[in-house]
Amino acid sequence: MLERLRGDLHDDVIEGIVQTYREYPTTGMLVCVSGPSGVGKGTVIAALKKIMPSLEHSISVTTREPREGEVDGVDYYFRTKEEFATMLENNQILEHDVYGGNFYGTPREAIERRIGSGEDIIMDVTVPGSLSVLDKFSTSCNIFLLPPSLSELEKRLRERGTETEESMIFRSKKAIDEINQATKFDYILINKDVEQTAREIHHILIAEKLRAVRRAKENFSNQMFGQTSLRQFVIGLVNSM
Ligand code: 5GP
């Protein structure tokens, strides 16, 4: 029955779908997570990686001193201000920001290479960093994490025990600035429970991957979600033309 009605399918629609899948290379998705210091970005990303092991976390370059237990090349690439300036001059930094007197930046080459080969990458960046990524990659997805309350945020930051009083004051003021910009983000989540927030991000990423607008620009990566139905449908159409 349906096969006989094939001729009623709109040619321009079919052509659009076919072109999409023929012309665009497989590229990965960039996901930026922002939110005030102490909200739990790192912990949420670690929990998310357990659910989505293929998701890669971008390692940033920073000029701040390592905290106890932080490892160069794992948590950050710890560099001097001079080294950071040289990287900037050489166009090796995709986006950067100054936070608490230190530079933080995303290495360009790794991001471009990895999304070019279809990997999805999650980044933990400041609000301007996230907006700058969105500017450069219109299909990136940005998520803002809110604490359940300001007092809970202060508690988490204090309990972390990594900040001096001066840094605590700076990070608290900055938290208010950042929360004031939350509506610039695609998604705003309240990080009450780490596992729950990670699950919510997982669902967001599945939905984002399936959005027609994104699929018109990117082939979603099959290994990530095992979604092959639309691709197969299109291949079937191409083969029967
Ligand atoms: P922390 O010193 O707590 O590790 O990071 C301070 C702030 O810098 C956090 O808001 C974190 O999200 C942000 N940050 C870390 N890496 C980058 C980066 O590569 N670019 C930008 N713009 N912000 C970053």
The side-by-side strand order for the widest beta sheet comes to: 2-7-1-8-9
Structure ligands: guanosine-5'-monophosphate
The dominant shape is: elongated
Oligomer: single chain
Kindly report the average pLDDT value: 87
What's the total count of β strands? 9
Radius of gyration from the alpha-carbon trace, in angstroms: 21 Å
User: Distance between termini?
Assistant: 18 Å
Q: List the total number of helices.
A: 12
Largest sheet: 5 strands, parallel
Share in helix: 40-55%
> Which consecutive residue ranges, at least 5 long each, have pLDDT under 50?
218-228
Strand content: 15-25%
**Could you give the order of the helices and strands?**
HHEHEEEHEEHEHEHHEHHHH
Which structural category fits the helices and strands? alpha/beta
